[in-house]
Each structure stands twice: as C-alpha cells, then as structure tokens.
Task: inverse folding
C-alpha cells in the first residue's frame, strides 16, 4: 500500500516541498533537510587497502591450476576474405592444447578481426603457435575514412550483408535513411525554416573531432573454467550479468550454468560491456582442452580493436534574436563507428538550450575499422565541442557576455545557478570584472586578445555540459544480518573503480545505526542478486536506493524481534546508534541480533520505480584557464574549475576522484589523443601507449571541484550518477579558452600545436598555415555534410 | 602488404608479425630467440642498466655466456627475502615476480616500458620490470608493492594514498606507489615538482594524478593539510 510523503527538493535557495508516493518497503527518502552521519562523509574506500598492498586480484592476476594461456590471431587487413586457415603446425607444437578458427569463407571487415586462437601452457608458447598458423587472405577493397566512405563509388563495407543493428531505437518521429555505407536519422522539432527566418543573427561553422580509444590499463580479458557442464568466467568487465547472458547464449547454456566473477577490474570507460570473443572463444578453447583458459588482450590489440569513441564532422548553424534568445539550431553531422553503430552527437543540441525549432541530421558512416563501443558520455563531448564554441561565437557577434547568453537560454535552472557559482569561483574571471570580453577577439578580427606575458597568452573559457538521470529497475540487493551482529550487503554487479563498494557500506551503516566496520560488502558475482552494467552513470542511482531499501527492511524485521524482547508494539521501536529503543528500555544491536531466529536474517529488496521528483537532467559547467605559447602553439591547461550537480553526494572523497577522472580524460581528448590510420593500408599507426598519447601527470591541470548539491526527490537516497557528466564540457571549455587567448578558433580535435598555430595565423589574417600532412584520412577532401 | 597470400617462411610468422605488433619476428625469418642467442642476451641487457647496478659481463675472450633455452636456476632477493626459482632465460622480471612468486602487484599493461604500471625498485631505483630479464635482476635488492607494509601496518605513503583516495580502479597504483617511494627516498621533503617528475612515467587513465601528488606530499609532511 503506497503512502504519501512530502520532502524538500530542489537546490540552495530554491527548495520546494514535493509530495511523492512511497511504495511498500521504502523508507522515507533523504532530502534537503536530512542530517546524515556516514553518508555524505569522505570515507576512504573499502578496497583501498587491498589496492595499495597489491592484494587486490584482477582478472589479469588470477592463475588457476592447470590454466592455459590464450592468444588471438587477427586479420591484418581492413577488408579480406578468409580463404584458408591451416592450423596443423600450430596444433603440433608441444604445449598447444586447443585451437579455434573462424569459418573459412567468412568476410573480414576490419584490421584486428579474430581469425584464429590457440590455448597453450604459456603465453610465449601461444604466441609461437600463432606464428605457425598459415592464413590465406584475399584482400578486398576497403575504406577507413568516413568522408571517403560516403562517396558514391566508395567500397561497400557490408556488401550484400545485413547492417549492424542500431543500438538505440531512433528517436520517436525521426526518419531513418540508409544508403551505401551511410545510415542516418533526421529529427525535427518545430518549423526550422520559419524559426531561422525570425533570426536576427546567424552563426555557422564546421567542427571535427577524432576517434578516441578507451585505453584502460587492464586490457579486456577473461578466464573460462568448466566444471562438468557449468562454466565460471572471470572477466575484466563492466557488466557481470551482461557477460553471463551473452556467454550463455553463445554457448547455448542455461544462464544458471554460467557464473561471472569480477571482484576488481582495471578500468572500462564504456568499452567493457560485452562478453566478447575473449570470453566466448576462451570458453570454447577451455572445453576442448579440458583446462581453464585465460585470454587477455595484448596492449597492441587493446588499442587496435577493443572499441573507441567515433569521430565526427559537424556542421552547426545557430539562429538568435539580438537580445540573445535562441530561435533555431540546425545540426548536420556524421562520423564513423567503424563496423558498429553509435556516432550520433546531437544530445547537447537537444538537451541544453530552449529554442523554437531544431533539426538534427546524424549519420553513422560504416568503415573498415573495428566497431566503436560506448565511451564515457557517448556523443556528448563531441556535441559540446561544437555547440559551446558556436555559442561563444554567437556571444561575440552579439557583444554579449557568454555566461549571460547561456543563462538566457538554458533549459535547466540548476545550471544557471552553477554558472553564477562558477563565475565567482574563478579568480581570473573576476579579474575581468566578472565578464568575458564582450567585444573580444573573434576569428579574423586581427586583434589578438587575452592577457599578454611575452609570447605566452592566457585565456579563460567556459562550457556547459549535460547528462541524464538513468537507472535500472533490474537491480536487487540482499542484506544479511548474522546472529553475531555482522551485516553483509550483496549485489552481483561490479565496482569499476568508482567507489560502489564503499557507498553500499555507508548506506547500510547509516540506515541501521552501525559503524562502518560492521558492514561487509560482496560484489562482482552473478550468483549474487542482479545488478546493472556500469554505464550511462546508472550504477549509483540503481544500487544505492536498493541498498537502503534492503537495509531498511532488515531493520524493520529486527524491530519486530526487538519489540518482543522490549515488550512493546513493533511500531514503537526505534533503531539508532544506541540500538533498539522501546519506550524507556534499550537493547543493543548485538543483543537483538543474538535472538534472530535461525542463523541469520535475510532481506532481498528490488529497486523501486523512481518517484516523480524534479527535472531529470543533470547540468555541470566547467571553466578552463589556459596558457598558449604563441610561437609554438603548445597549450597548457593551467586550471579547470568544475561546478557539478549529481544529486546527493554519497561520498565526496570518491566523487571528487570521479570528477577529476572525467576532467582529465576531457583534457586528454582535447589536446593529445588521436587514433591514426595509415592512409594507404588503412592500418592503425599507433596501437600502443607511447604514440597514442594519454595525459600524464605533467599535463594535468589543477582541478577545483565545487559540488553543487541538488535534492531531486527521485529516490530514497537522492543520489544520481556521476561517471559521465564531468567529461562532457571539458574540451569545449578548453577550446573557448584557447579562442580567448589567441583570438582565433580551433575547430578540430585534438587541438595540437599545428592546429593552434594555424588558427593564430588565420586570426592574424595570414595565409592558412599548412596543417600536418595527412592530417587525417583525407581532411583536405572533407566536405561539410 | 601486397599480395593475396601471407605465405611467409616458417617461424617468421604470419601477417600479424608483419604489422609489427606484439610478435617477435624481425621480418627476415629470424626469431627473437635466435637473435638473442646470436648477440648474447646479457650484452644487450647489460647496456640498459644504470651505473648503480653491476652488469653481467660477457666472459672469456669474445665468448658470451649462453643460458637456456630451457629453464635455468636463479635467485632473486625480493622484499628482503632470497627466493629461488627456475625460469627460461627470456623471462622478464615482471613475469618472474607475477607467475613464479605470485607477487601480482606489479601489473603488465604495455609490455614495452611505456606506462610504468610494472614499476618495481632495484636497490632503490625505479625500473620497469617488463623491460628487464629476471636473470639480470639477481644482483640487486628488489622491492615490490607487497613489501611496503609491515604485516598489517601500511607505510605512511600507502596510508596517505588511502586517506587521499589516490587510487580508483587501482591498476596503476602499485607502480605509482613504488615510483613515489623512490621519490621520498631521494627527496624526503619533496616539492610537487619532485613528485611529478617521479611519476612522469606512470600512466593513469582513471585520473588519480592530483591525489597521487597530494598523498605523496602529505606522507612527507610537505603537503597542504589532508
């Protein structure tokens, strides 16, 4: 029987009472007025000691008795027909216990596609065995550049074959078109032509972003072990249950015969949702060899063919009134998700600003490269890089403060407040009297702006991000209270480094009035209750309220036990740090637990549906302060200031780390990373960590984090996810800061020194400097879509 | 890459070897094993060691010592204890630690000294264990992350990492800890610059850099308050 409850929701200075329907078994939600003891405190991670002592065992670290080592042989060509695979000499090598091959006659669509695999008694032997495999490839025409793949005469990636399933259903009311290597959607809102006709100012530009590789330090990989007809898979994964489902389906096993384990994993960022060949082929090899098989990707293969963020080419047109009110946006974009899907970038255009009309035309362009995988806020860093630069250009044209322009148009009032907060937190902004230069340097203005210190110019810029509140109702948590007072809280999903384990203990301790030390957390095992894949920033909003519900229900059951001992009605028992209190008498936690009937008390709670709550958007604004060397084009990000909302911070220590992580990936994406392909062979030139450059400590800016508390009233903890929002506006903020420093705009990622110099030259009205040769798979031929 | 058939000579591998990733072929039909036998593993690795460690010298007039190809006995002093093991001479120090001694703290990430995740200390100096042969680590005193704590008592640096949350997924953490331990030996009162220099070769994808620096400064007592 649902009951009504009123809670204070909103944010500082904007709190309002909202009434929600609480489902059965749900505690009263925490809200703006809740005073909490452990939740919201900077508690060190529960697994920190295991990680700093080297005791934490990752899939990469696990050795089982009799375990074999697996390696893949991969197609070296972007497109080929597999004519023959001769594994006879590999099979004959002593130490090789099992071999798998792809079907002869199969069309291979990307460099790195699996052709064969061996399992041997050592990794060295497995690699030696691969060298003994003779493969007959018939190379086929290929295309690896998105722009070239759109040409009428481009080789077809999927000639005579079914296109890959689109990951998400196209938005309601949108049109889908497919022709050649291109599959696109057109989404219309309002009357675009009429809206542009009303516009008094127009800004138009083309932006390009690069393919980004996840580069987690632990590669993809699994260990498969059969015991009879039951299979256990240890995997470096973001989705224990997803892996179980896919492995069971691939091997035609009932799900209850497959167990997936992931206690610790070394980074995912979106690439590790699938079981993948490293799980499925490992299981097949293990079955053949009658021994466990460990299949970890080499670093080369990890960088080459385990997933990426698609590139983008975006043509963006904004229309506005003279007072800054946006009226229309038209975005045409395309990018390559390789042989997969997911190159759309229209999220920010739809979600950030209000306007009368918008049209988003997005295309996936198939190319002969490994399929993309979801990468931290898919589509959004790309979309913001374009949109937020266009907004700054609009501000310049209007002679308007870029912050005022945002405030006028933002959909999310929280973000307006975040902007004001940020403006006051950034000293450099205050130095300019709290406004960005309204008549500031624009492309071609010929007037170099920014502070001048010799050849180093300083610039500041800002950008808005956006993300969404998602959660999975397919989440259950078990709380077990033992007779000796120990409490275990369990969920089968994984902690990918975000701190899930820790807040599960905090919430349980809070709810039951216990110290943190009394709580043990069990995670990462599909024999435990179901949990979500760690993506979309759904882990915390899925698990946290379910933990609280389970702990609450366990507490209620214990109150029943205590009521009998205290001789009061159950409804009069309270539970707090002092234990159970009934009128004048108390009993300690341990005293009551000792009277649990049987061996332990167990509660399994399911994730209830969210209450209606407030707006389900997340905001976040970032301010970048950069220094640009005007002679070399080298950019140094000096400081990033982040104002981020994510509901109630369950643990500010781990939340700050998460924000640092998102920002650091954003800076790295903005300045350094680039998946490069040889223009003739289509092969990846930098499948390693020295030529695919991720940010090092020396490139790391100072990061100031301001957590902007919001009480959204959705669930009983008020927590929302945080994985993705902090990486969305970073590159855009840096781009706007560079523009402020140099008086010109860099519209292509990464913003490498040559591109910065070209923008400087363009701003000075000089001939456009030569960009880096081969900048790209034919950038000189790139057309706006 | 022209040609429809990848019919390379035996031992030189398939096109996987040609693309140069991971496989050991040098393209002319010579395997890595044959190459090392030819010029002597010791001589190659000896050139990589710093002055502080004695290189294994080639013996005799022009006759290098030949080890293997089967397993050879060796002794490694790890975290103060002498450990006897038997491995093929081509075994890296990293693999010896992880696979023979079950010291899995040091992590394999790039296999080519580019990322620092396998950092251990030899006589106090940070080395990337994936780029060193186990047989060449016998003369030094090896320190791994497993040796930092005394029983259950964490070192001040480990404790600072825990308190500052200088770790997230934790995969880069052992390498960071060893690199920072070396920094603190060299600079008992380090500046942030000293620490950054010390971990410049340690990659982290989760974004722990700011807190790694803060934790190390705190452990040394030179940081701002926790």
Result:
């Amino acid at each position: 029987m649902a009951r009504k409850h009123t809670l204070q929701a909103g944010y500082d200075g904007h709190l309002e009472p909202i009434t929600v329907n609480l489902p059965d078994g749900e505690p009263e939600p925490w809200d703006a007025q809740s005073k909490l003891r452990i939740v919201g405190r900077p508690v060190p991670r529960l697994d920190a000691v295991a990680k700093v002592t080297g005791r934490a065992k990752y899939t990469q670290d696990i050795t089982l008795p009799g375990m074999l080592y697996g390696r893949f042989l991969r197609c070296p060509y972007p497109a080929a027909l597999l004519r023959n695979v001769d594994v006879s000499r590999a099979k004959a090598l002593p130490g090789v216990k099992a071999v798998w091959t792809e079907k002869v006659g199969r069309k291979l669509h990307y460099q790195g596609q699996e052709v064969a695999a061996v399992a041997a008694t050592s990794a060295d032997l497995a690699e030696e065995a691969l060298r003994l495999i003779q493969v007959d490839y018939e190379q086929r025409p290929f295309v690896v550049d998105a722009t070239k793949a759109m040409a009428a005469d481009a080789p077809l990636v999927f000639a005579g074959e079914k296109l890959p399933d689109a990951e998400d259903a196209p938005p309601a009311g949108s049109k889908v078109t497919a022709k050649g290597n291109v599959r696109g959607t057109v989404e219309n809102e309002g009357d675009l032509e009429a809206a542009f006709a009303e516009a008094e100012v127009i800004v138009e530009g083309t932006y390009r972003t690069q393919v980004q590789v996840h580069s987690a330090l632990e590669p993809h990989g699994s260990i498969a072990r059969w015991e009879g007809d039951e299979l256990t898979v240890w995997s470096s994964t973001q989705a224990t249950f997803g892996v179980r489902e896919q492995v069971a389906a691939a091997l035609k096993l009932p799900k209850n015969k497959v167990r997936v384990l992931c206690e610790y994993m070394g980074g995912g960022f979106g690439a590790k949702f699938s079981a993948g060949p490293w799980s499925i082929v490992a299981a097949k090899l293990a079955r053949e060899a009658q021994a466990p098989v460990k299949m970890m990707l080499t670093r080369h293969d990890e960088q080459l063919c385990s997933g990426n963020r698609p590139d983008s080419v975006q043509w963006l047109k904004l229309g506005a009134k003279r007072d800054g009110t946006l009226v229309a946006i038209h975005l045409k974009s395309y990018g390559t998700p390789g042989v997969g899907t997911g190159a759309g970038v229209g999220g920010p255009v739809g979600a950030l600003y209000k306007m009368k009309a918008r049209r988003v035309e997005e295309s996936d362009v198939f190319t002969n490269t490994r399929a993309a995988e979801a990468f931290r806020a898919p589509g959004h860093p790309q979309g913001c890089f374009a949109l937020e630069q266009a907004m700054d250009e609009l501000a310049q044209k209007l002679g308007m403060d870029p912050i005022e322009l945002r405030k006028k148009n933002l959909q999310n009032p929280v973000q307006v407040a975040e902007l004001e907060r940020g403006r006051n937190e950034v000293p450099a902004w205050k130095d300019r009297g709290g406004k960005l230069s309204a008549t500031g340097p624009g492309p071609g203005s010929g007037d170099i702006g920014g502070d001048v210190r010799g050849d180093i110019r300083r610039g500041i810029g800002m950008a808005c991000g956006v993300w969404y509140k998602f959660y999975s109702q397919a989440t259950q948590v078990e709380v077990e209270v033992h007779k000796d007072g120990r409490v275990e809280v369990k969920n089968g999903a994984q902690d990918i480094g975000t701190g899930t384990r820790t807040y599960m203990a905090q919430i349980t301790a809070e709810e039951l009035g216990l110290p943190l030390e009394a709580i043990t957390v069990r995670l990462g095992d599909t024999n435990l209750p179901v949990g979500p894949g760690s993506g979309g920033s759904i882990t915390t909003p899925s698990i946290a309220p379910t933990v609280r519900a389970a702990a609450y229900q366990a507490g209620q059951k214990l109150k029943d036990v205590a009521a009998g001992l205290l001789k009061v009605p159950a409804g009069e028992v309270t539970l707090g740090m002092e234990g159970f209190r009934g009128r004048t008498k108390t009993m300690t936690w341990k005293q009551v637990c000792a009277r649990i009937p049987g061996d332990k008390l167990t509660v399994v709670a399911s994730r209830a549906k969210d209450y209606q709550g407030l707006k389900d958007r997340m905001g976040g604004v970032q301010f970048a302060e950069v220094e640009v060397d005007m002679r070399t084009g080298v950019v140094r990000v000096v400081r990033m200031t982040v104002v981020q909302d994510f509901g109630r911070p369950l643990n500010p220590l781990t939340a700050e780390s998460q924000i640092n992580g998102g920002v650091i990936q954003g800076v790295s994406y903005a300045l350094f990373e680039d998946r490069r392909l040889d223009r003739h062979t289509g092969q990846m030139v930098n499948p390693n960590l020295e030529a695919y450059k991720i940010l090092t400590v020396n490139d790391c800016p100072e990061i100031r984090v301001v957590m902007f508390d919001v009480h959204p009233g959705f669930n009983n903890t008020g927590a929302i996810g945080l994985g993705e929002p902090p990486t969305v506006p970073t590159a855009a903020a840096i781009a706007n800061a560079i523009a402020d420093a140099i008086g010109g705009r860099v519209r292509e990622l990464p913003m490498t020194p040559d591109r910065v110099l070209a923008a400087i030259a363009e701003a000075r009205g000089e001939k456009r400097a030569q960009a880096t040769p081969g900048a790209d798979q034919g950038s000189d031929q790139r057309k706006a879509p | 890459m022209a040609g429809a058939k990848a019919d390379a000579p035996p031992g030189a591998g398939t096109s996987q070897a040609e693309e140069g990733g991971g496989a050991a072929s040098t393209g002319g039909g010579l395997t890595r094993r044959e190459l090392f036998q030819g010029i002597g593993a010791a001589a190659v690795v000896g050139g990589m060691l710093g002055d502080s460690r004695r290189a294994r010298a080639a013996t005799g007039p022009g006759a290098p010592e030949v080890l293997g190809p089967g397993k050879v006995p060796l002794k490694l002093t790890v975290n103060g204890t002498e450990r006897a093991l038997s491995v093929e001479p081509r075994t890296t120090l990293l693999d010896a630690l992880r696979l023979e001694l079950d010291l899995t703290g040091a992590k394999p990430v790039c296999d080519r000294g580019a990322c620092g995740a396998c950092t251990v200390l030899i006589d106090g100096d940070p080395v990337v264990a994936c780029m060193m042969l186990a047989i060449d680590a016998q003369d030094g005193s090896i320190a791994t992350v497993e040796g930092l704590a005394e029983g259950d008592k964490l070192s001040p640096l480990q404790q600072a990492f825990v308190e500052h949350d200088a770790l997230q997924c934790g995969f880069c953490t052992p390498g960071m800890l060893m690199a920072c331990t070396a920094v603190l030996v060299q600079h008992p009162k380090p500046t942030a610059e000293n620490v950054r220099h010390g971990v410049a070769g340690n990659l982290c994808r989760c974004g722990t850099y700011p807190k790694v620096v803060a934790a190390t400064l705190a452990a040394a007592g030179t940081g701002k308050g926790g």
About this structure: Residues 539-566 of chain A form the longest helix (28 residues). Chain A touches chain B through 83 residues (CB under 8 Å). Residues 677 and 684 of chain A are 4 Å apart (CA to CA). Residues 438-449, 767-784 of chain A have pLDDT under 50 and may be disordered.
